[in-house]
Specification:
With 446 residues, the protein is an alpha+beta fold. The protein contains 15 helices and ten strands. It has three domains: 123 residues, no CATH class; 147 residues, GAF domain (Beta-Lactamase); 136 residues, 2-Layer Sandwich (Alpha-Beta Plaits), CATH 3.30.70.2880. α3 runs antiparallel to α4 and α4 runs antiparallel to α5. The longest helix is centred in the first third of the chain and has 59 residues. The N terminus is likely disordered.
Length: 446
C-alpha cells in the first residue's frame, strides 16, 4: 500500500517527500496568487481582512500543510509584506494593523506545519520499515520455495543421493567460509559440482563480474568448455535483463545460433549482480521450469552467503560460531539504526545452568518472530543472542512484559531472574558491529 502511494504521482504532488528549491519560490507565489484573486473579488479588500472569515490565511495554511512550518512561516511573512504593500498604495486607509489576525493566523500556520512535519516523518519511517519487511519477505519466499523443491527432490532421489539439498547448502556455506579470504566467489568448484548433481549440468563454467564486465577467466569449470563468448546473444540477454535465460525461451529460440544452453546471473538479495553461470551442455529434458527454478534459487543462496562484505568476514573470524547471514543482517540493521530509519534491539540470554533456565532459553528461541535472527554464542551453555529488527525502547519493554507473563504462567516464578535467566541488551547504533557485540558479551560476563 505504501509503495503504491509512493508511486502515485498525484499523491506525491499533493504531499511531496520534502521541500526542494522550487518550494521556496512556491510558498510566496501561492500567497501572491491568493492576493491577486482577492483583488479581483474585492478591490478594496484583497487580503479579506474585513468580514466574517479571513480567507487569505487559507493560502498560508495550505503551504504549511504541504511543506511544513518553516515554509508556512515564509508564507505568513509574504502576507505581512502584502499588507504593507496594500497600505502603501492607499488601501485600508482607516484600518489599523490587524495584529490579532496575523498573530492568530501565524499560530494556526505553525500548528498546521507541525502536523505536516510529524506525519511526514512517520510516513518516512513507515516506508523504511515496509521496505525492510518486503526484503525479508522476498528472502523468506526464496527459502520457502527452496525448501519445497528440496522436499520434492528428496522424495525422488532418496535412494540414490546420500544427502539433501539442505545438507548440500550447509556444506557449500562451510566451504565458502574457508575459502573466502580475498576471493569474490569462494567455493566455486563446490558450487559447480552441486549444480551438476542437482540440476544435471554436464558442461559449464562460473565467471565473476569485474566492474561492469565479466572476467574471461573462469572461477570454476565443469567439464571441457570453450572460451567465454562475451558477444553471445543468450549471455547478453541474461546480463542485460538480469534473469535466467535458456535456449527454449520465446520465439527467438529458433534464431539463436550460440553454443550456450543456459545463462544464469548470480544476483544477491540486494539486487547486486556478482557473476554468471554459463551452461554448454545438460540433458535437454532437464531444461524445465522446476529444474531452472532450483538452479536460480541455489545461485541466489550462493550469492547471499558469498557476498557478505569484509565487516562480516571480520565478525566470523572473531566469533567462528556466528553465521554469516546473521552477521550480514546485523551490519545492515546497524547502518539503518545509525541513519535513524529503523530501531533494532540485540539481547543476550544467559541461563544459570539449571535445566529449567536452559529450557526457558530454548523456548525463547523457538518462539521468536520469523523476522528475528538468532545466534547461539555457546550452544552447550545455552547462551543465546536474539536480533530484533523494528524493536525500539517501547517494543523491547513490551517483549519483556510478555516474557515475564509467560514465565509466571508456565513456570510459576515471578521473573526471569528468579527463573535463573540473566539477560543484557543493547540498542544498535552507528558504532562498529564488532564493538557492539563485544560490549554485549562483556556486560553478560560482568
Amino acid at each position: 500500500m505504501l509503495g503504491k502511494l509512493g508511486d502515485n504521482r498525484f499523491a506525491r504532488f499533493l504531499a511531496p517527500p520534502g521541500p526542494g528549491v522550487l518550494a521556496w519560490l512556491e510558498a510566496p507565489a501561492v500567497v501572491l496568487v491568493a492576493v491577486v484573486i482577492g483583488a479581483l473579488v474585492r478591490e478594496t479588500d484583497p487580503l479579506f481582512l474585513t468580514g466574517g472569515i479571513r480567507w487569505s490565511l487559507v493560502a498560508a495554511m495550505l503551504v504549511a500543510l504541504r511543506y511544513g512550518s518553516l515554509l508556512g512561516s515564509l508564507a505568513m511573512l509574504t502576507m505581512l509584506l502584502a499588507w504593507f504593500a496594500c497600505k502603501a498604495i492607499g488601501l485600508y486607509p482607516e484600518l489599523m494593523f490587524p495584529e490579532q489576525t496575523f498573530l492568530g493566523g501565524y499560530i494556526i500556520v505553525l500548528i498546521t506545519g507541525e502536523f505536516a512535519d510529524i506525519w511526514r516523518t512517520r510516513l518516512r519511517r513507515a516506508e523504511s520499515d515496509a521496505a525492510y519487511a518486503l526484503e525479508r519477505l522476498h528472502n523468506l519466499t526464496q527459502r520457502h520455495v527452496l525448501l519445497r523443491l528440496s522436499h520434492d527432490r528428496l522424495e525422488e532421489n532418496l535412494l540414490t543421493k546420500p544427502f539433501t539439498v539442505r545438507d548440500a547448502l550447509l556444506r557449500l556455506r562451510e566451504v565458502m567460509m574457508k575459502e573466502s579470504g580475498g576471493n569474490a566467489l569462494p567455493g566455486g568448484e563446490e558450487l559447480m559440482n552441486m549444480l551438476a548433481e542437482y540440476c544435471q549440468l554436464q558442461r559449464g563454467a562460473l565467471y565473476q563480474l569485474v566492474g561492469d564486465r565479466l572476467d574471461a577467466e573462469p572461477v570454476a569449470v565443469l567439464g571441457d568448455n570453450q572460451p567465454l563468448d562475451l558477444s553471445d546473444g543468450l549471455l547478453l540477454y541474461a546480463m542485460n535483463n538480469r534473469i535466467l535465460a535458456h535456449v527454449q525461451m520465446g520465439e527467438a529460440a529458433d534464431k539463436y545460433a550460440g553454443h550456450y544452453w543456459v545463462c544464469a546471473p548470480i544476483i544477491n538479495s540486494g539486487g547486486e549482480l556478482v557473476g554468471v553461470v554459463v551452461v554448454e551442455r545438460m540433458p535437454f529434458l532437464s531444461i524445465n521450469h522446476e529444474n531452472l527454478q532450483l538452479l536460480g534459487l541455489l545461485l541466489n543462496f550462493y550469492a547471499d552467503v558469498a557476498q557478505h562484505g569484509p565487516e562480516v568476514e571480520e565478525l566470523c573470524r572473531e566469533w567462528p560460531g556466528l553465521a554469516p547471514v546473521f552477521g550480514r543482517e546485523l551490519v545492515a540493521l546497524s547502518n539503518l539504526a545509525f541513519a535513524g530509519k529503523m530501531d533494532t534491539t540485540m539481547v543476550l540470554f544467559v541461563p544459570n545452568g539449571t535445566n529449567r533456565a536452559q529450557q526457558i532459553v530454548e523456548a525463547l528461541n523457538r518462539g521468536r518472530r520469523t523476522l528475528d535472527g538468532f545466534w547461539w554464542v555457546d550452544a552447550s551453555a545455552y547462551h543465546l543472542v536474539l536480533m530484533m529488527p523494528m524493536t525500539g525502547v517501547h517494543g523491547f519493554e513490551s517483549f519483556l512484559r510478555r516474557i515475564e507473563e509467560w514465565v509466571r504462567t508456565e513456570y510459576d516464578v515471578g521473573s526471569l531472574a528468579q527463573a535463573g535467566v540473566h539477560y543484557v541488551y543493547r540498542y544498535l547504533d552507528g558504532r562498529p558491529v564488532k564493538e557492539q557485540i563485544g560490549e554485549l558479551l562483556e556486560a553478560a560476563d560482568a
